[in-house]
Amino acid sequence: MMTFRGEKLKNFAVPTGSVWLMTDIAQSKGRQELYARQSPQLLKVMRDMALVQSAESSNRIEGVTVQPDRLKPLVLGNVRPKNRSEEEVQGYRKALNLIHTNHSELSITPQFLEKLHFIIQEGSGDAGHFKRVDNEIIETKPGEAPFIRFNPVSFKKTPKAVEELCLLYRHAINQEHVPPLLAIPALVFDFLCIHPFRDGNGRVARLLTLLALYQHGIEVGRYISLEKLVEDTREDYYRVLLESSKNWHEGRHDIIPWLNYLLSIIRRAYVEFESRAGQIRSARGAKTALILDAIKSFEGKFTLSDLERACPGVSRDMVRRVLKDLSAKGDLKCIGKGPGAPWLKKGNMLK
Q1: pTM of the model
Q2: Predicted confidence (pLDDT) per residue in 254-267, tens digit
């Protein structure tokens, strides 16, 4: 709530770099409906892929992982979870479904944040409840002693802090007319600084990001996993949080590093969305394009399993078919046999 107090955002001088990112996102937002009408088959493939990647990445950032062959059935199917990690991945999928289908009817309130936490942490003793003891954000690095990176709001002050944050966010949007692309990053950042739950704060923050963006017409997270982009830039994510959280309790922090980071993630998602949606017109072509993009993203050798993990919305038969075609053209070469055999890129695939 410290970023909103004293009408800070109403009087905030947005830096030129941030303005450029906001303008670019606004222009992409204006084009997203056009792509949605032109490529319905592609968007179905992209939605499934984003759903799987979001559930996997948001949990993996927090150290929660599941077996690759269980991921797609857990997210897109109806299989029963076998362990706690699988329950958390499936819980995140349920929370995503709620936001995807009902975002216009949901309100950002303390009660709804507790509901999100209950959905993703169902089964834990404090699911759906704010923390009952003080917590610390601790960073560990190989070969170094752990250190306290940030002291969040105390558990006693947490309920009022969350209530104030939700109220000030709504006031900034509705009364102060703060641009959503400034208010939303501030909302998510202050939530992370309050750190209201014992566990699951990062995951709730990423769900909150999606919800707030959807409510202002920025729906790129439906087709491109913002969580995957955050995971891919995890070091930057933690670095900017550290930079922006200094002096937060005193209200003298610098929101700009976090603001530019989150805006760059949204912009990157739109760039990827338009690149895919602007080229392909059929579901089969869409899946082939996703596989080709994944192959091009690999540096050096890769395996069939690597490719399946990169394309969760595509069947193994489809992946094998594309690999076979590329091999016949001389663009790929398989060294060995079986799913674990490495593939090498050749010719056009190196470009």
Answers
A1: 0.82
A2: 999 999 999 999 99
